[in-house]
Structure formats: C-alpha cells, structure tokens
Amino acid sequence: MTSIEEKFEESKRLGLQIVKESEEDRLMTLSVGPQHPGSGHFRFVIKVDGDYIVYCDPDPGYVHRGEEKMCEYRNVIQNIPHLERPVIHDSANITYSYSLAVEELVGIEVPRRGQFIRAIASELNRQVYTLYWLAIYGIFLGHSTMFMWPTGDREVIIDLLEALTGARVTHAFNIPGGVRNDMPEGFRDRCLSQIRYLQKRFKEYEDIFYNNPLFRQRTEGVAVLSKEDAIKLGVTGSVVRASSVPFDVRKAEPYDIYNEIDFKVQYMKTGDCFARSYVPLLDMQESCYIIEQLLDKMPASGEVRAKLQPNPKGPPGESYRRVESGRGALGYYIVSDGTPKPYRVKISVGSFRNMLALPYLLFGKRLADMPAVYWSLNYWPVEADR
Amino acid sequence: MTSAGGFIKSIESGSKHLVIKRFTLRYPEKKLKFVGDGYQFDPKRGVGIAGYRGRHILMHDKCTGCQLCAIACEGIAEAIGMVKVDEQWKHNKKGIMPQIDYGKCVFCGLCVDACPFYALFMTNDYELSAFTKEHLIYTPAQLAIKPKYQGDVEIVIDDRGATHG
Amino acid sequence: MSANNKKELNKVAAGSQTKHSSSTSDDTAQEQPPSPSTQPKQIPAKPSPPSATAAASAATTTTTPKPSLASSPAKTQPEPPPFEKGLVEQLKNKFGDIVKVVFIKPLRIKIQVEPQDIVGVASFLRDSMGFDHAESVAGTDYPKDNQIEVVYHLGSYSREELAAHILWLTARTNKDDARLPTLINIYKSVEYHERECYEMLGVYFEGHPRNERFLLPEDWADIPPLRKDFRIKGR
Amino acid sequence: MASYPRDFRFGGFVVSLIWLIFWILIIVALVGLPLIFIILFYVPLPEVDGEVLTPYLFLTSILYPQSAIPVIETLLDTTFFKVAVFPGFTYAALIAAATIFIERKFLAKMQLRVGPLYAGKIEGILQLLADGLKLISKEIIIPSGSDKLIFWSAPIAFVATAAAVVALIPAAPGWVVADIDVGLLAVFAILGFFPLIALLFSWASNSKYPFIGGLRALHQLIAFEIPFILSALSVVILSGTLNLTEVVESQIQSYWFIFFLPISAFVFYISSLAELERIPFDLPEAEAEIVAGWLTETSGMIYGLLQLGSYIKTYALAALFVILFLGGWAGPQIFPAEIIPESAEAIIPVSELYEQTDANAAFWFTLKTFGVIMLMLLPRGISPRIRIDILLHTGWYKLIVLAFINMFVALALIYGGVLGPGGLLVR
Fold first, then answer.
1. Cα–Cα dist D171/A139, whole Å
2. B6 CB near a chain D CB, below 8 Å?
3. Number of structural domains in chain C
4. pLDDT per residue as tens digits for the range D185-223
5. What is the torsional sign of CA A337, A341, A345, A347?
6. Touching C: A residues 173-212, CB under 8 Å
7. Which residue out of A45, A48, A51 would a mutagenesis test of the D interface target, given it has the greatest number of D Cβ atoms within 10 Å?
C-alpha cells in the first residue's frame, strides 16, 4: 500500500497542477453535480481517465446556512429548533451535544429520568438515521428493494418518536436541562414490541442485501482505508470503526448515563466498502439492545427537566462536549461571555471530517465504484455545510 | 457464503415477502391515531405533557395578551403576531391575542412552553393546507376552534409483519 | 485490546455543579488501569469561579492583562485532576514557558502557544503524547483586543486512556493581517477545517495548499462572515 | 369549484360546437372519401366465395351475419391481420402493457408497498393509460448542439427493431408473420442492431453522461452477444433446423429441450437479461452513477417510445426462450372441439371461425411467455446492479464456458442417437 503522501502527490501531479498537454486531453472532467441523484446537494469534480477516477475535488457549500452565525443572535433555548436543521432525521443527537455543552457552561444538573429519556430518544434517532442511510445505500447500488424495506421499517421507529416527542422528525426534544416532556403511558411496551420487530427485520436485510454475491463483489476489497490512514485522516464514526479502530464516544467518553449501560463497540478490521456498510447495521443491532437496557434501568418516576429561569446564563467560559451521532463524534465548542446569547458556537460534525477521505479513497477507482465509496463514508451533505 | 447460496437465499427472502402484508398507510381513507390530544405544557411543574404537535388551540378565556408566546417565537420563526380581538375580557385589558402564521411556524412548541396561563396548547390536527399564503394565517378566532381530526389506525405488529391495521 | 477492558473513566454526569450530584455512580467496580496515574474519585472541577478577572496565567508574553471576555483564565480551583496534570507536566518540562496552560478541566486541557512555535508543539503532541488527530479547528474573533484565537481540538484514537481527553491547542493572531502557520503536514485531518477557518474568519494559513473559497458562494464579496463586525442584515 | 373564464356564455359554447361539426363534415367529404376510392384501386381485395370483395359487398355483408362470417374469415388469413393483430404488433403491445403493469405491482408487493393505486378506480388499472397520455403531452426537449436527425430517428428505429424481432416469432402453428427458414439467424441479426441504436442515440445527444452510458451499452450488448448465440446454437444442434416453427415441432415430437439443455437455458436467460438491460445488468442507464445513462436526454414521447421498445423486446426475448426451450405452443388439449355444442346448423356459423388447435396453441404460448416474463421481473427485486468489469468478466468468461459445456452435451445426445432423426426419445 503506497503511503498516503505518494497517493496525494500522484493525484496532485495528475490533477491539480497543469498536467502535460497530452495527458490533459485524455482526462474527462465530470461534475458529479448538486442535482446528480447520486450526491444530493453536494458536488465533487472528478477527472476520469477512461473508466478510472484520477482526481477528485469535493466542493460543498450548496446548502450552507450559516448555523454558527445564527447561533450568536439567539438565546440558548431559541437555538434548538434551528440547530437541528442540518440533519433533521438525527435531530435528537445533534441537539444532545449542544445541550450537554450548554449545561456544562451554565451549570445545570439534569435529573436522572430525564437523562434516560434523552438517551432513548438519541438511540431511536440513531436507528432512524442509519435506516435512511442504508436505504439510500441500497438505491445507490440499484437495489430498489433495499431502498423500500429500510424506509418502511424506519416508519415504525418514527412512529415511536412521534409518540415520545410529538413530532415525526424535527422533535426539538433535547433542551439544555433535560427533555421537554415525559414518556406517554403505554410507550414502554409499544417501544419493546416495535424494537423486536426491527431486530427480526435486520436478518432480512442480511439475506437480500449483505449476503447477496453481487453486492459483495461490488464492495469487498474496494477502497480499503487502512488503520494508520484512518487515524491520520481523522475520520470518525462507522468509517473509523470499519478500519479496526474501536472508537465510540459513548464508550470512550461516556456522557449522561452511558457509563451504566454495558454494550460492545462494534468494529471490523477490513476497512473496505463492505465493512463501512456493515458496521452501521451492527450498530443498529447494538442500539436495539441498548434501548432495552435503558427501558429496564429507568427510574419509574421523577423529574425529566431541570427548572431553568427563562433566559439561562452562566459565567463566561468555554466548553467542548461531543456525542456519538449516526455519523460519528458530533461536538459543540461553545464560548460564552456571560450573556444568554452564546458568543461563539462551533459545530464539529462527522460528515465534514469524513469528507476528507473521499478524494483519498476515490483515487484510482472505477467510475462505477463512485456511489458505493461515496455513500459508504456516511456523509450527509446538509450537515457538512452547516 | 457461496455465490449460488447467496442467490438462493436472496430469492427466497424476496419471494417470502410476497405473502407478507403491505405496510403502506392509505392516507386519505385511513388516518393515524395519536397518543393524547396534542402537546400541552404545565408551567407550574415546568414540564410538557406528551402529545402530537399539530395546529395550536387558543383558550380565549385564559389568554391575557401578555405577548410571551410572540417573544418566544421571535428568535425562531416570528410566526406569532398579536392582533386586536373584539371580545371584552376583564383579564385581557389590551384585548390582543396571538395570531399564528402557519406559513412560518415550525411547530416546535416553544410558544406553548412560554405561555404561563394554560392558554396556548397544540392539537392533533395537521391538515392545514390552503390555496393562498394569506389563508395560512390563523386568526385567534380560528385558533379557538377544537379540531375535528379523529384517526383510527395505528401500527399493528403480528407474525405476518407490520401493517397499519 | 477490546474496548471493554479499557479503564472505565467514571465521570460525573455532565453537569459540573459544585454541588455533588447524588447520581454519581462512582463506586462502580473500577479495574486498575495499566497506566501509572490512578483515577481517584474526581471532584467535579467548577469551570471557573465567578471572579473571572483573576488573571492566574501570569506568564503571558502580551503585556495587556487577559481581559475577562477572553477565554476563562486559568483555574484557581482547588486541585486539577491528576491525570490531566501529568499531561501538562510532560508539556511543561518539554517546552517550559512557551506553552501557557489556560485551564485544566476534567478531560479538557487548554494550552496557548505563540504562532511561531505551534508546529513544534503540535508535532511533539502527536509523536510522543499520542494525540494523533485533530477533531476540529475553531476560530473565535475577539474585537476587544483585536485578536482572533484559533483552537485546534486534538483527540486520540491510538492511546485508549487518552480517548476521552481533548487537548485544545490555541494560537492568537491579531485581526488585521491574521496569519498562522498551517498544521496540515502534522495533522492531515485539518485540511478542510483550516480552509473553512480561512474563509469564515480570514485567517491565512501559511503553507496550506488551498487557502480559497470553500463553503460560501463563489461571488461572496463581503468580509469573512464569522467576524463580529459582520452583521446579519435585518437583525 | 372550477373557475370559469370571466366572459363565459353558453351560446358561445354551442356556436363553437356547431362550427366543429361543420368542419368535420367538410373534411371527411372533400378529403376522406376520395382517399378511400384511390386506395381501393390499388389494394388487392380478397375474394369471398368466388366474388371480389367490393366496398358495396363489404358494407352490405355487415348487415347480414351469415354473409359477414366468410368476410371475417378471409380477413383473418391475410398477412395484414397477422402483422397488425395476432402474433404481430397489437398482441406484443398488449403483452408489453400487461408486463409493465404486472412488474410495477409485483415489485411493489415484494417491497411491501402498494404500487399504482389511484389511476382507474380498481387498483390503478389505468396507470398505463395515464403514463402514456402524460408522455404524449410532455414537451420533447432536443438538447442544443445535438444531431437532430439521429436524435429523432433512433427511438423510432428502436421500436421498429423490437417489432421486427416479434415478427419472426411463431405464436401458433401457421400464425407467424414471416415464416422464414433461417428464423433464428434472422432474430440474432436483428438483435445486433440494438447496440448500434443505443450508441447512435447517446452520441447524438451530445452530453457527457449519455456518452458514457452509450459506450457501456455497446460493451454490454456485445459482451453478451456470443453466449446468447452459443446457447441458442445447442438448440439448433438438437432440433436440426433454424426455422423456429420446425424447432417447436421437433420439441413436440420429443421432449422440451429445457430438460436436455438446462445450462444453456440458464445462459440464454442471463444473456437476455443483459440484452434487455434489466437490473443486474442495468449499467447503460445506471441512475446513481451516470444520471440516467443513454436515456438522460430523452423527454416526452421519445422516452415513451424507448420504454415501449424495451418492453416489446422483453416480450420478444421471453417468447424466444419459450420457443427454444419450453416447446413453444405445445401443451395438453384443454379447448373443446367447438365452442357452442351442435352449433354447425346454428343461424350464425360461428364455429367456422373457431379452430381448436389454434386456440389451444395460442393459450399455452401466452401462458408460458408470461411465466418467463415473471421470471425476468424477479431479479429487479432481489439484486443490486453489478459493476462494468464484473459484467464483462461474467459475459466473456463464465457464460461462454457454460454455453460450450451444454453444447457438448447436445452433441453427445445427437451422436448417442438419443435425439435427432430416428432417435430413441423421438416419438
């Protein structure tokens, strides 16, 4: 395996600088554009030599909303609805680390039952995101059944979240200080029965998709990301766990009540496309197991939200808290100057960090591998642009 | 997994689904049933009551025109404006009540959290489409009407798979 | 090296209230981590006492005292957690007063370095202390003392006892011609972060191959948007 | 509450109706009738019971049913009827329409969803009609800088080639448009046109993604041409003739060829999937990688024609599979001798139109074709798209080897005297 430097120099030699006239004519520049059904609001320019990709330059920013600037104009509670917009179908996680960071700044103590409900909402939302990501991975490879099944089963979990939080997707449920409302009655056994139904469905996915030899041919051994390169590129989430680095924020830096939950960090050693597509499925099975534990260990009654004055403000200071979202470590760096409005909010998301692996992995691959490699990086364009 | 075995397993798994019941909810004929009758907030305990966050409902007899909901929505969607109401209430001297523009509202429910007088809750009604943008603005009188939404279907899981039964 | 025999860092729940929250489950069985420094029950160090102006970080080269608005000054809280102190000691005796410790909190250490020797500190951090990747690069604009502070959040995948820790390597440049040496040769992962920091705050990273437009539209003619003097129209 | 135009008056509406009727009458009288008379002189009118079928005879015979039957009978035998209706275009188009509808419903059921529902009150039965009207009403966009002539003619050529393949396929004994001795060879000759059309169309649409799609279509169809022909070759070895009708006859005498040639049947099935660009071999229009492949620039009826052409090709290849391996129209006799008992002396001698063997043959042929079409729809639900190099690898190496294996088996059967003239199994 040539080391990472030669790979980048080689792609630079061919792509970035002015390549010798004869070679430049051979290359065809293709824009895998924002409207391309394969990328979704994200463009990367690739130079194709025959069927091989020689150069790839990601060009995000088509759905940049300026979330970080907007945060500076709103107080801590009003930030929640617009902060979950970057990835609405993982909204419990993206507001979770924001709430943790604000609680550390303002000094709020979340009651125990509130922490449990917050963890359940986060696990359910992780499954909703991963099922949606798996569905798109299926249609990327042309497997329409694999698009329809996860999208249908996702409806079962969204129904749970709708009962718990009141909204299907954009819940605005995690608030600095806990959760907005308690669990409705009958939620517990409804959740258990629907989670068991989902666990049965995972076996179907493996039969029709993962063990399908055509899928294996297309993904096994394709775009291998070795452990050193994964660490050097600083990728996160299922991408780093697929390259034999067992890093999961819930286990490395347990927040809230995750230190009382015992679960195994799922990781694989091969680091190829297949591993990057199989680790999320293992994660989903693991989070089903976690939800059952959470429901058992939950205190029967108690407050779910700490009492806050309308515009909570704390002493000036900084905090950086991170949470394991569907796409890896999702961290908030908040600087506060003593007023209820945060002075600076920096959102560090998994997609933005995984994007760096794209040009590295696509170099030298075939054009037909592009969707499999691109979507296996667990990349959500809207979240990367913030 | 030999390739032949893989194919046979995928054929078997695919054709097995020909007998499993369809999952689609046929919306106009059947509607989903929600838990409770809408999201409410109890200011004394400072915590919400689980419920679907649909169209708001305004209790005219409790609203004091304190504009707290409009202030809460300012930073989010500026969907709430206070308008004059012709009823005379002794607890609502200025006679102003919130008017919600559903073209802007994001249904986050933070206005319900901000209302200290149990006046503004949310209901199960989510069928709010209109032909023009002006029709999306619900006046306080429109907000006072109780919704006529009754859903009767929910996800039923049995051994033949999940359906909207 | 499976994850579960890793040292169970039992942290107090997120809130770092001085009041000892009843829910700490710190008496759970805790195997002795192989690394020398034991992890006794941790007193949740309060981020910063209300008296923000106690400028503990005396040995700053800049003459002006650290303004209260800037990052909270070094803690005067009773006793920083020993493991983090061990890390800081390593840095101190390697670099002496080039490295200025801003504060030490459970799992978070903030050190400030002058722009010219940030590369040396970073390569030391990566090679011998095991912080092998950068999670994110955040720029913050402080118009009061006309400075922009760039924070590198460094995490670690390879060393397990460092997995929970994040070290904030910060450097400050003045706002008019903001220039910083790039860390791209040490931390490959900061390429896009630094490019975004250039675009959003105008900090030019010397040595970065592509200091150019990244997220904003091509025809963006305004000043870098995350600076405080850029006002969103209509607010 | 449809909104009426401001100045709508019912009188104006009636006046416009009367104008419309007036113009229809004028055009029919001045243009329609002379046209008919001109045609009548050049079209060789068939004889009915000895006398020439003049328009007068034709119009009067419609009134009396007894004389209408012989006229219908003669019309049935004309080649125009064969081309237009039974084994020809209408039959193929109906089966293609049914295939589209069944595929969408079958795929939906496999994916736990509903499929077309609202068009035509009963379970979306009119969805085809709705799609067709939509495509006809859509505007056809010609990309700038594209080669107009080829851009227009390629879809028409595509449907024509697909229909040409249908013309060579015998649906029932005697019911074939062109019963030529080298039937199988002609089929493969016509199938050779499709890569040409795909490349021409994608080159003419003058944009990057179709160009890549066109090249892929070229590679794919060429790669699967040889195993396609080799697998059919082993059938020719067993039946000894190239004429498709005689191939079926030879199967009727002995057993269906699928029992002797299972591997080449499998190879034929896989190659026909590749020929049709169906899911495992969906590369020419792989929407995730190259937008929509060589169909990217199509819009409106051009897309409609290409879809119709590809579904007619599905019918044609399924029918070919049935003829070569499943014994064409062979099947147990389930139709009664005559439709209405003792109908010989009935007033309207309908029974003359009804042929027991033809009805039975047509029934079994259609049934088997639908069975094979269902088999072709299955991979779309269960397998992803494969990559171009794997596709070419399977095409050139794996399938050709399999086809050869089965050819040796066929040769062994012939020389062993099991099949062929005077063979053991030949009845």
1. 38
2. no
3. 1
4. 999 999 989 989 988 998 888 888 888 888 888 888 888
5. positive
6. none
7. A51
